[in-house]
Amino acid sequence: MTDQNSFDVLRRDPRAERIIRNRLHPLHDTYINTGAGGELTEVRGPSGLLRKNPHNVGFIGPNGIKRIDRLKGNAAASGKGRRSSAAQETLLPLHQVENPDFYVVVVPDMVGGRLTGQDKDVIGQAHKLAAGIEGNGAVLAVCFGQSKEEHFDTAGVDRLLLLDDEGYEGYCPEQRLAALVQVESAYKPPFWLFPDSVDGGSDLGSRLAARIGERPAAQAWQVNNQTSICRGAAGTIDITRTTPRLLLLAQECADQIDETRHEALPVELGSVPTVIAKLQDQGQVAVDPNAISLAEAEFILAAGNGIHNWDQFHTAASVLGATEGASRVAVDDGFMPRVRQVGATGTWVTARVYLAVGISGAIQHMQGIGQCDKVIAINTDAGCDMVKRAALSTIGDSQEILDELMKLVQQFRTQQSEGGDQDAA
Amino acid sequence: MQPKQSIAATDKDVKIVSLISVGKHPQSGRVRRADQDSRAVELGMKLLDTGDSTRGDSLVVLHAGDPKEPGLRGYAGMGLNSVRVLELDPAADAVAPLGEYLQQFAPDIVLTGVRAEGGESSGMVPYQLAEKLGWPIVPRVADIISVEAGVAEVLQALPRGQRRSLKIRLPFIASIDSAAQDARQSAYGPASRAMMDIEVVDSSTDQLRESWSEAPAKKRPKRLKVIKAKTAAERFKAATAKSQGEGGKVMQNESAAEQAQAIFDLLLEEGVLR
Lengths: 425, 274
Ligand SMILES: Cc1cc2nc3c(=O)[nH]c(=O)nc-3n(C[C@H](O)[C@H](O)[C@H](O)COP(=O)(O)OP(=O)(O)OC[C@H]3O[C@@H](n4cnc5c(N)ncnc54)[C@H](O)[C@@H]3O)c2cc1C
Prior knowledge:
The complex is a heterodimer.
Chain A: H1 5-8, H2 14-21, H3 28-32, E1 42-44, E2 50-52, E3 59-60, E4 66-67, H4 76-87, E5 94-95, E6 102-106, H5 117-131, E7 137-144, H6 152-155, E8 159-163, H7 173-187, E9 192-195, H8 201-212, E10 217-223, E11 227-232, E12 237-242, E13 246-249, E14 261-262, E15 265-266, E16 279-285, E17 299-303, H9 310-320, E18 323-326, H10 328-332, E19 353-357, H11 363-368, E20 374-379, H12 385-389, E21 392-395, H13 398-424
Parallel strand pairs in A: 5-14, 6-7, 6-9, 7-8, 8-15, 9-13, 10-13, 17-18, 17-19, 19-20, 20-21
Antiparallel strand pairs in A: 1-2, 3-4, 10-11, 11-12
Chain B: E1 6-7, E2 15-19, E3 22-24, E4 31-33, H1 35-48, E5 58-65, H2 71-76, E6 82-87, H3 95-105, E7 109-113, H4 125-133, E8 137-148, E9 151-157, E10 163-169, E11 172-176, H5 188-193, E12 195-200, H6 207-210, E13 213-216, H7 232-240, E14 249-251, H8 256-270
Parallel strand pairs in B: 1-8, 2-5, 2-7, 5-6, 6-12, 7-11, 8-11
Antiparallel strand pairs in B: 3-4, 8-9, 9-10
Helix pairs in contact in B: 3-4
Bound molecules: flavin-adenine dinucleotide (FAD).
């Protein structure tokens, strides 16, 4: 039994309990008199009277409320133990690789600057492959563009090559390919792993495969150092083949790293030649957010029973550029069409950002937003379930907050377009 | 909302090659024209439909494989006069003969599907051709908006229904996404009338592929949420506790303006405001 577990488990100390019950025990004072701050709760005053300090009685419970122990100290020990368990951070053991003999290279998608679930699966697969090769292997993640990820260590990244220069921003597969070719010559990795995804992993992986003349295993879902099983023929057959050097991995190809912490030490790459891009990124095109199906929309503004000004809601959605969603009540009341309903009997959405306005968060609704990353709630009721789920909750009237939000966004838009004009000039 | 395609009248004649493969219906397994490939043919036909009869634009629909494949007739039925076939053994590697053909023919735009519906379906053919010819490749194209002065403007399909606009110099290779416009219907009469323009090429068999084994796709096990608890108390907690969010930030007493600012900052940080 480790030390850490003793905090979580209720451990009774029969001897202490016995001493606490027995006021005549010579050690009674030392047990009973340690209150919250470790100070004495009972002291003899100057006149010889017993004085109690009520502020030192009891302890702060796990949810921050002061608890006074009416069991005459019998459960005092357990109370203290529980308290510390709330603050206990589990620190996973650190997996260190000093002077690696080889590097298994992973190129994650980093959608929105963070590792996706599939990226983490691929990193897990990289560790499996590294373990199958003799010697000390490290997993090197090559990440392009600005990174917002804070948990490279627990995701299993031993070495991190972060290429966030301006040249790698936007869609620039040719420049990224040049960097990968540089990595290839610098590290000669035994395996290159890419997520086989529409977020760019499959594109970049295919480019590198064509450049270095490897025949990749695409949609590989069961891989070891000898053989891989890949989905072929549009997912209708399984191809068993020897594992190539370059793999495009399907979702859930391997378990994610969850029992170790890794160093995520930054590494440097020599200068990469700037390629003359034949592709010119003109930026994303504005698409009508309501033309995108609710299930795949990235940013949803959802309305519930707490919306009273529907015109304002629709304007807010168009100003924010969000796809509209609704709770069942809003749909049943006829304010929104049925196709916009989110939840168990509506659409299961996958939005990255879900802004719920005046939605209480009934379980049927919560089921529908289970896959959303960031939920923001605007609600008058601070105790509702949506607020508990949300990463950011604002308590107040929806109409006022939406008004202010629209003002900010409009300001931002005008600034942006002015800035754009200056650039053009 | 769809912008109209155009080839600028001033541009020289544009030669388009559309690569086609034999498709397979995902449920019934029946041979058909492949979905993405037929969208590519559709896009090619639409691009050349400029209404200007003096132009010598041309579309070549090209297949490498067995010319007797019934699936090819599905493309011909879209209104093609002929389908060009490089005859080779279906098990042979198609990239080398295709590359040679394209090098000689020197088209301006090559259209393909993203992934084939049969075989390995790794989607590598356009990339290998691009590498061989030294041309740029744009994957997952939803539309080609214009071809003007040797530069094409294309719309790339991104996940979540988004589109990105790219400018690219001719010649290039584009793989056409399922988000592109649906292919027109295939009619039986024109399909059977169309000519198969066959050229026999020699090719090498795909050595590597012969060592692979194929089986119908197995159902993949779903990943279970494994609870790694060391003690009974932890297991109990994991089984009974209501899953709690990470305990987000709650703004209760701030003014509406401050609250809106916080939401705005988060939206900006997540990059959903464009
Ligand atoms: C079989 C079955 C299936 C169902 N399926 C679905 C489903 O698929 N999807 C779904 O959504 N529901 C579903 N429901 C209904 C669900 O149980 C809830 O009734 C519904 O989700 C509640 O909607 P709501 O949150 O909009 O309304 P309410 O629960 O009325 O919540 C309104 C919220 O708005 C807040 N509010 C009020 N005024 C304001 C204001 N001025 N400013 C800000 N906030 C304000 C309130 O504090 C409250 O939290 C289903 C129910 C059943 C029985």
